[in-house]
């Protein structure tokens, strides 16, 4: 099995470290009203979070989700941030009087920005490069907080960005609020990334003051991991070459939601062209990049009807391929299974790499029983249950039964947004 070869994973991954954060300090006694803006790859979410302090914890959390129009993903920085700020302003305009702030006090926002950033302070950072379908050249190298702040001003919105957070770091912080043993956060959504808690002494690149806790959070940017040992096929190479970011985010392109359906499409196209899988003509729709989305792939994969009626419908509705035989539909499901299984097993191998690096892949003799919680978030992990099941089974297989009992995978729903609000709270000038 190819993933067994990935023994060098931890060190290679660590070469891709982009950011160091001082250890997350969340006391669970933060109090008040905070906002979060979570800009992922497909949608963005605006959250309003009410924190009740030590005894009450999270009192209330409300959110709205807006999809990002595709033209804005490849337009200008101003156009993207104006759109986001306008939605934020709309969210605020709709809120009731109970959320009115006393005069002189500004609303505070944690900004989850799920793209590689060179963090320059808790509330500033320059965009290193775009990933996942985004390509807005004039934003690269700019401080994304300054861009958002300017756009909010243009909307007449009186709001202050208190924290800039990567989604993995947000998920780690949000996860910590519920589970004290969170040591790793993994995002499997449109893209993929991971963060983990590292002993500050184990970070040779860090020359600043050591945090009191002795720990720091590392945003790995693991989506950008690449290695000659990764088992890339001709379909992966072709998809990468034709992507907006060739040569980049190779691991992400094998495991994350933006790409799985597209890989299935490419294999089906080849089967149609070279083996007349769908008869004498190659169905024209099958030639359209990204026409088969991962949610549709996942719906086909999960079709439990004996005659695979949902597969038939998807093939007809999306690819305009009618009259498929049951045999053909079974092959389509098997192909979804192969692509999802490869992705989830590689994601599990990545998690094993982290656990090895932090010494959580063994059971310690004597002493307290060590527990490790992995906070997971992202639409792929949340909705593609064959994928998540396979990921969890693979991790158990890699770690063995005994160690697996000390590791738990928890779905930290909306953890990245909540974490950003918590970090905004813990960096609030008013508290
Ligand atoms: P983002 O990654 O953009 O922050 P999400 O975490 O919500 O946002 O993940 C959205 C992604 O999750 C989609 O792009 C898609 O790839 C994947 N996804 C959403 N729903 C499903 C589903 N039902 N089955 C499989 N994948 C899904
Ligand atoms: Mg996200």
Structural class assignment: alpha/beta
Shape call? globular
Write the H/E string, N to C: HEEEEHHEEEHEHEEEHHHHHHEHHHEH
The hetero compounds bound to this protein are: adenosine-5'-diphosphate, magnesium ion
What fraction of residues sit in β-strands?
15-25%
Radius of gyration: 22 Å
Q: What's the CATH architecture name of the domain at 25-178 and 414-426? A: 2-Layer Sandwich
- CATH topology value of the domain at 25-178 and 414-426: Nucleotidyltransferase, domain 5
Biggest sheet character: 6 strands, mixed
Distance between the termini: 53 Å
CATH superfamily of the domain at 25-178 and 414-426: ATPase, nucleotide binding domain
H/I helix tally:
15
What value does the average pLDDT take? 90
Low-confidence stretches: 1-25
* CATH class category name of the domain at 25-178 and 414-426: Alpha Beta
Strand order of the main beta sheet, please?
1-11-10-9-12-13
Number of extended strands: 13
Pathway: Carbohydrate metabolism; hexose metabolism; Carbohydrate degradation
InterPro entries: ATPase_NBD (IPR043129), Hexokinase (IPR001312), Hexokinase_C (IPR022673), Hexokinase_N (IPR022672)
Pfam families: Hexokinase_1 (PF00349), Hexokinase_2 (PF03727)
Domain Hexokinase N-terminal: 27-177
Write the layout of secondary structure elements.
Blueprint: H1 9-14, E1 19-22, E2 31-39, E3 43-52, E4 58-67, H2 70-73, H3 77-93, E5 107-113, E6 117-121, E7 124-127, H4 144-154, E8 159-165, H5 167-178, E9 182-188, E10 192-199, E11 215-219, H6 234-241, H7 250-255, H8 257-275, H9 294-301, H10 309-319, H11 326-357, E12 372-377, H12 379-383, H13 385-399, H14 401-404, E13 407-411, H15 415-426
Helix pairs in contact: 3-4, 5-15, 8-9, 8-11, 9-11, 11-13
């Amino acid at each position: 099995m190819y993933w067994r070869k990935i023994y060098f994973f931890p060190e290679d991954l660590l070469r891709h470290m982009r950011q160091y954060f001082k250890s997350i300090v969340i006391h669970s006694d933060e109090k008040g009203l905070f906002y979060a803006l979570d800009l992922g790859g497909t949608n963005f979410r605006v959250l309003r979070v009410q924190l009740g302090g030590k005894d009450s914890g999270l009192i209330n959390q409300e959110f709205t989700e807006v999809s990002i129009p595709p033209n804005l993903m490849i337009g200008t920085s101003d156009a993207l941030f104006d759109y986001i700020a306008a939605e934020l302003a709309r969210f605020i305009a709709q809120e009731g009087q109970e959320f009115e702030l006393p005069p002189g006090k500004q609303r505070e926002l944690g900004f989850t920005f799920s793209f590689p950033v060179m963090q320059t302070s808790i509330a500033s950072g320059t965009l290193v490069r775009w990933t996942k379908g985004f390509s807005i050249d004039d934003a690269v190298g700019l401080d994304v907080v300054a861009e958002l702040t300017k756009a909010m001003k243009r909307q007449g919105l009186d709001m202050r960005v208190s924290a800039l957070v990567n989604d993995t770091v947000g998920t780690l912080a949000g996860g910590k609020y519920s589970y004290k043993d969170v040591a790793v956060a993994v995002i499997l959504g449109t893209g993929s990334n991971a963060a983990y808690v590292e002993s500050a002494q184990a970070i040779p690149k860090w020359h600043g003051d050591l945090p009191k806790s002795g720990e720091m959070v590392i945003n790995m940017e693991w989506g950008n991991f690449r290695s000659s040992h990764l088992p890339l096929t001709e379909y992966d190479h072709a998809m990468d070459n034709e992507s907006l970011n060739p040569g980049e985010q190779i691991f992400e392109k094998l495991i994350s939601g933006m790409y799985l359906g597209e890989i299935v499409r490419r294999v089906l196209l080849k089967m149609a062209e070279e083996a007349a899988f769908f008869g004498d003509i190659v169905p024209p729709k099958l030639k359209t990049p990204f026409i088969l989305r991962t949610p549709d792939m996942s719906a086909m994969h999960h079709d439990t009807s004996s005659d695979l009626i949902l597969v038939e419908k998807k093939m007809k509705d999306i690819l305009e391929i009618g009259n498929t035989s049951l045999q053909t539909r079974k092959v389509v499901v098997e192909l979804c299974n192969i692509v999802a299984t490869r992705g989830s097993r590689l994601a599990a191998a990545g998690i094993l790499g982290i656990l090895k690096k932090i010494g959580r892949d063994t059971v310690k003799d004597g002493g307290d029983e060590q527990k490790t919680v992995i906070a997971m978030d992202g639409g792929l992990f949340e909705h593609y249950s064959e994928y998540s099941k396979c990921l969890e089974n693979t991790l158990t297989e890699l770690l063995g039964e005994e160690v697996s009992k000390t590791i738990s995978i928890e779905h930290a729903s909306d953890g990245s947004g909540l974490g950003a609000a918590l970090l905004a709270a813990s960096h609030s000038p008013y508290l």
